[in-house]
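TASK: fixed-backbone design
INPUT:
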C-alpha cells in the first residue's frame, strides 16, 4: 500500500510531500522529478507566480545513494515567494497590522465554505491551503510513483483535448501523447498544432475580457496489465479510485473513464468493444486479448483489462477573476466585489500533469498491493511471473 500526504501553504515557507510504501531499491532520477515539477508550471495563460517559483525537489529522507530504502520519503519544495510573506504569515503571533486579509470570498473558490467551517474572520488561511499551488507537492510524490511504475513497463502521460470552445477532433496515438512530456516548450499541451492554435485564441479572448477559461485534459496510462483493482468491494474498484483521485484536484468538477459520457447517449452494441485474441505476444501489450477500440478506457467491472487506461478531467474556469463577481464583505456583510489575488487565466495543461501524478499514485499503490515485495527485486519478480501467467491464459 502506497500512501502520501502533503503539507504547506501557497505563500508559506515550503511545500512538503510525504510518501510511504515505495519499495526499497527503486533508482531515483532527480532530474526526472524536477522536470515533472517544471512541466506543472508551464502552459499558455499561466500567471505571475510561475515567474517567481522555480520548483526543485529537495529530498530529506527515504533515499540514499540514489535509491529508495523502503522508509518514508519526505520532499521539500521551497517557495521563493516566501520572502514577500514572512511578516504577513508568520508562525508566531506577529504584527496583526501586517496581516493581509481576504475580505470578500470569491465565488467558485473554497473561501466562504472554508471560513464558515473553521470560523475564520476572513479567507486568508483558506486560500493558502486550498490553492492549486498544493498540487506541486502531489507532482513530486507522483514522480516517485512513476519511477516505480516505469520499472514495470508502465508509462503515464497527458494531453489537452479542449480549452474553452476549441477542441481536438481526433484520437491521438500513445506515441503522440507521450512525446509531449519531452517537449522543451509547452503551449497548451495539445498533440495537434492547428487545434492548439485555436485553443490559444480562447485563452487570448479570456485574457482580454479579464476572465478565465476552462478545458478538458486526458491522462493515458500505457501498458497497464489486466488485473489491477477489483469488482469484489465498492472501494476496491479501479475506476472509483481513479475518479476520486483526479476529482480531488483543485478545479476539477467531473471525471470520465474512457468514452463514459458518449456511452450514456448511445446503445450497448456501439459502446462495448468486441474481444479478439492474438496468437503471439504483442509489443507493449500485457495480454494477448485485444479490442478494436478502447471505449471502456482500459477498465471493466472496476478492474484493468489490459488496454490503455484513459481518464479525462473536466476543469472549471479558475475562480479568481480580474473582473470580479459580486460578493459580500466578511466584516460588514455589505455587498462588494470578490477579492482578487494574482492568478492564472488557463491551467489545463498543468492540471493534466497533476492528474498524471494522481493516476500514477493510484496505480503504483494497487501494483504494490497485488504484487507485494519490500524490495524492487521482489516486486519485479512477482510482477514478471504474473505477466507470464496472463500471457499464457
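OUTPUT:
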Amino acid at each position: 500500500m502506497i500512501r502520501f500526504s502533503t503539507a504547506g501553504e501557497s505563500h508559506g515557507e515550503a511545500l512538503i510531500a510525504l510518501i510511504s510504501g515505495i519499495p526499497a531499491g527503486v533508482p531515483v532520477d532527480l532530474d526526472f522529478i524536477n522536470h515533472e515539477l517544471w512541466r506543472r508550471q508551464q502552459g499558455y495563460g499561466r500567471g505571475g507566480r510561475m515567474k517567481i517559483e522555480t520548483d526543485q525537489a529537495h529530498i530529506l529522507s527515504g533515499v540514499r545513494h540514489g535509491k529508495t530504502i523502503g522508509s518514508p520519503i519526505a520532499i521539500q519544495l521551497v517557495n521563493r515567494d516566501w520572502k514577500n510573506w514572512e511578516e504577513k504569515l508568520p508562525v508566531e503571533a506577529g504584527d496583526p497590522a501586517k496581516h493581509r486579509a481576504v475580505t470578500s470570498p470569491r465565488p467558485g473558490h473554497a473561501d466562504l465554505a472554508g471560513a464558515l467551517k473553521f470560523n475564520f474572520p476572513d479567507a486568508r488561511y483558506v486560500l493558502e491551503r486550498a490553492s492549486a499551488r498544493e498540487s506541486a507537492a502531489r507532482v513530486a510524490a507522483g514522480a516517485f510513483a512513476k519511477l516505480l511504475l516505469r520499472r514495470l513497463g508502465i508509462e503515464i502521460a497527458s494531453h489537452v483535448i479542449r480549452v474553452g470552445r476549441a477542441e481536438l477532433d481526433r484520437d491521438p496515438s500513445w506515441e503522440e501523447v507521450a512525446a509531449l512530456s519531452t517537449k522543451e516548450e509547452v503551449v497548451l499541451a495539445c498533440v495537434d498544432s492547428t487545434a492548439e492554435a485555436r485553443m490559444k485564441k480562447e485563452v487570448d479572448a479570456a485574457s482580454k475580457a479579464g476572465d478565465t477559461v476552462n478545458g478538458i485534459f486526458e491522462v493515458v496510462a500505457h501498458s497497464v496489465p489486466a488485473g489491477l483493482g477489483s469488482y469484489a468491494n465498492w472501494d476496491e474498484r479501479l475506476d472509483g479510485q481513479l475518479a476520486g483521485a483526479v476529482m480531488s484536484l483543485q478545479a476539477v468538477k467531473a471525471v470520465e473513464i474512457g468514452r463514459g459520457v458518449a456511452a450514456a447517449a448511445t446503445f450497448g452494441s456501439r459502446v462495448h468493444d468486441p474481444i479478439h485474441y492474438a496468437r503471439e505476444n504483442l509489443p507493449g501489450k500485457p495480454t494477448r486479448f485485444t479490442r478494436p477500440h478502447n471505449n471502456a478506457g482500459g477498465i471493466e467491472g472496476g478492474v484493468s483489462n489490459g488496454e490503455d487506461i484513459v481518464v479525462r478531467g473536466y476543469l472549471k474556469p479558475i475562480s479568481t477573476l480580474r473582473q470580479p463577481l459580486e460578493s459580500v464583505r466578511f466584516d460588514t456583510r455589505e455587498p462588494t466585489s470578490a477579492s482578487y489575488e494574482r492568478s492564472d487565466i488557463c491551467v489545463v495543461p498543468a492540471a493534466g500533469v497533476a492528474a498524471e501524478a494522481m493516476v500514477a499514485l493510484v496505480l503504483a499503490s494497487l501494483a504494490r498491493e497485488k504484487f507485494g515485495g519490500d524490495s524492487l527485486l521482489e516486486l519485479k519478480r512477482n510482477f514478471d511471473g504474473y505477466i507470464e501467467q496472463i500471457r499464457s491464459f
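COMMENT: The CA atoms of residues 162 and 215 lie 5 Å apart.
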